[in-house]
Structures are given as structure tokens and as C-alpha cells.
Amino acid sequence: MRRPLAVAVLVAAMFTAVSLPGTAAQAADPAPAVSKVADTTLDSQALYFVSYNGLVNNNSFQKNGLLTYKGYQYATWYTADRSAVVARRALGSSSWQTAKLAHKLRYNDSHNVISMGVSKTDGRLHLNMDSHSDGFFYVKSAAGLLDNPAGRAWTATEFGGVQTTLDGLGLTSQFTYPQFVTTPEGRLQLSYRVAVSGNGRNALAEYDGTKWTALGEWSSSTGTYTSEHGSSTARNMYLHGIDYSADGRLHAFFTWREQNGAVMCNGGGITNHDTGYVYSTDRGRTWRNNAGAVVGTTGGSDKVAVTDAGLVADPLNPDHSLMNQESQATDSASRPHALISYVPGRFTQCTTHYVNDRTANGRVFHVRKDITTGAWKKTEIPVPLNSSQRTKLVLDKYDNAYAVFPFGRIAAASKASNYTDWKTLYDGSGLNAFGEVVIDETRLKQDNVLSIMYQQKSSGTTPSPIRVVDFSLPQ
Fold first, then answer.
1. Read out DSSP for 146-215?
2. pLDDT tens across 20-57, in order?
3. Does residue 25 lie within any of the structural domains?
4. Inside any domain, residue 242
5. Distance CA 129, CA 190 (A)
6. Number of domains in the chain
7. Residue 273: pLDDT band by 50, 70, 90 thresholds?
8. Residue 158 belongs to domain spanning
């Protein structure tokens, strides 16, 4: 039986007016975009020297050289006389307040970065600095300094004396790569490497607002790795980062570096291989592989080892100059993402000069859990690296991904495309940035602004300006 025309029109109108979740009727999330809003000077005469192809004030593994907490942004670096400096500003301000700490950098070694962390339980700022396979130097602020920044003066007297322990807790005589991370409960954890490149272990310490506790080592340097060229029985795990996601998991991507160069096709390369991934559901006490199986216990006899199953997210042999300590992030659904870089096989199956080959033919790849299948997926970013150095990853509030390349170049891809539409949004022109940059990972969560700390190119040991450039992302 045919409906009267008026009834048919009414029924059609009823159906077309309904918007179901996930349908095209919903407003689409904005595509990734950047808009430069500010560029301020931290120090016109920052310490400058090139070491290991990098600068001590701007290194990818520096977590955090720039951070935001309760409406203020904090930065740290070494100034021309080698003194450690820590600064702050109210978000949106172009004026930085600085405090010079009672420590001077000992060596011209770009590993000896300054890293900051916040203990939310007592409102302190913590700094660990000046270490490369030796002792470290530690400073913490007065309690509550970060809880009421507008009501407290920013002077060196707000910071305690320089220590070579964590309030009396000695960790190791061979300490490198301090990275602070705050737990969901507000405790502060310190990640670091024990021993040396090619034969080291990752470890954790934790501050509860009253005292530091050593949780212990969680990665192993032992076991046999064999490539098509040879074998190695010692190594270290290089972390791309260590980050808590919205669901409370602690995530870590990594690469292995073998001690024995026999695993390489040529001695001019580097022994890094494979991109691995582990996570913890108990604040770093135990570690699980991608399938959820426990593969290591912090402070226990069973540590995460190269021989453990289920660790590899992206396999790669040691012949492609894979970068260590690149970058990682987690999205709003707690999915892990990482950037990795190496020389793809279409250019060569055997790199013979690590720096030159990466500069000429290095490419960056985005590795992540696929939105639909949950399997590991990798997409090449179609932007030449043009550098031997590292690229940083951030995600905006819509889970669009941004890669900040050496020299301050920015490329991005949308979540809507499943991260396949990478394109350059900013070419870095006008910055005159040396190479690697430092990202404020915490500010994006506050106001969706991407803050990048960079140092301008110089020559020899002539000091140069260190600056912070801010980009507004989609609101």
C-alpha cells in the first residue's frame, strides 16, 4: 500500500534529522595545524659547543628541559659561564625570570643535560644534571614553590644545595640519562641508566614527597643476540621515553645497542637494532610485552632481556643506522605512538658512515597501534631528515600527530586518516636552530600550545641565544 505523499515526506524528514554517533552528520575534528604566536629569548649568551653531533642544552633524551605546571612554564640550560640556570614565566608572558644555580658544567659533553621533574605531592621542582657514566648532581626547590608561583619570589635561595645523591640515596657511580616522570598519584619517578653504552641497565627511583627510594634495575644487559654477520653477548636498552597514559599505564619504546661491532655489516655504522616496546600496569614494578605477559620485574632477578619474546614492535637489523632515544607519546585512548629513524633499504642495505648516511638518506617513521586492528603499524613521513639527529613527537587534543624535525621543521598527520596524510606545516625558516630541539610535553595538555626550546647555530664555543617558540594548535 502506498503512503500519502505528505506522510512519506514527514517520515523521510524524521530519518534525515537524526544524527547517530560516529556518522558523517557529526562535526569532524579539525585537521592538524600550527600557528606561530610567540618567540622569546631565554638567554642571549647560552653555552655552545658541539659534542656527539649535539648540544648540551637541546638533546632529545632531555626529559624535561621545558615543562608547564599550574599555569607557569619552566626552562633550564647552561649559560655562557657554564652555570646551570632555571627560569619561569606565566603562560602567555614574554618575560622570563631566571635563577642561577650553584653548579657549573664540568665537561664539554652534550650528554650532560639538565632534566626537570615535578613532585605534585609537595610542589617541588627537581633537577638532575651533568652526568655521563659517572656521578650526577641534584637540586630540589623548597616545598610549595610550584603550587603558588605568583606568591613566591624566583631566586636561587628557593633551591637547596647541590647534592651528589638523592637526599642521601646513592644510586650508582655510572649514571646517565635522567628522565623524570610523575605518576598518576603525584609521586615523582626518576628513570636512568646504570653503567655504560653497550653494557648498561635501566633503573628507577621514586620520591613520595618525603623520601627517595631506589626501586632497582629493570632491563638486562646479558643474553646473546645474533645477526647475519655475528653475535654479541652484552648491550643496553635505549629508551625513546617513559610516559604514563590516561589509563595509568607506563609505556616505554626502546632500541637495543650491542656491545660487539661484529653484528654490523660495516664498522662505520652503529649497532642499534629493532624497535621494542614494554609497558607496566603497576607503576614500573613489573613490565609486560605487547601481549601482556610479564617479561621483567624491577629490582628482581628476571629483567627485560633481548631474548624475551614479544618485545619487537618493528624489526630492523643493525645495518641501517637506527637512531636511539628518538621520541614517543600516548594518545587520548592510551595507545602508544613512537617516532623512529633510519636509512631505508631502498638506499642501502649497509650503512658505512653513520652520520653521513643518516644525513643523506635518513627517514623518520611513525610507529603506533593501529586504530582499527590494534596491530603495530608504521608509516614513513615523506620529509627528508637532512640530519643525523632526532625528531620529537607530540599529539594534540584531537590525537593528530606532529613530528618536530631537527632545525625546528614541523610535519603533521591527522587521526582521521589513520596517520597516513603526513605533510610539512612549518619549514623552520627564520629560527636558525642548530638541530635537535626540546619539547614541552606538558603544556599541550594545558592550553594546546606547542612550545619548542631551541638554540641558534654558532661556531666553535661562541655562545648563542637559546629561545622558546610557541605554536597554537587546533582549539
1. TTSGGGS--SGGGB---BSSBTTB---SSEEEEEEEE-TTS-EEEEEEEEETTEEEEEEEEE-SS-EEEE
2. 444 444 579 999 999 999 999 999 999 999 999 999 99
3. no
4. yes
5. 12
6. 1
7. very high
8. 34-472
What is the length of the chain? 475
Provide the strand spans (E) within 316-448: 327-330, 336-342, 363-369, 376-381, 392-395, 401-404, 410-413, 423-426, 438-439
Q: How far apart are the first and last CA of the chain?
A: 52
What is the per-residue pLDDT for 164? 98
- In this structure, what CATH number is given to the domain that contains residue 105? 2.130.10.10
Lowest mean pLDDT among 21-30, 265-274, 369-378: 21-30
Instruction: Return all residues near 52 (Cβ < 8 A) that are at least 6 apart.
Output: 109, 110, 111
pTM: 0.93
The DSSP secondary structure of 254-297, one letter per residue, reads: EEEEES-GGGSSSTTS--EEEEEEEEESSTTSEEE-TTS-EEEE
- Using pLDDT thresholds of 50, 70 and 90, give the confidence band for residue 60: confident
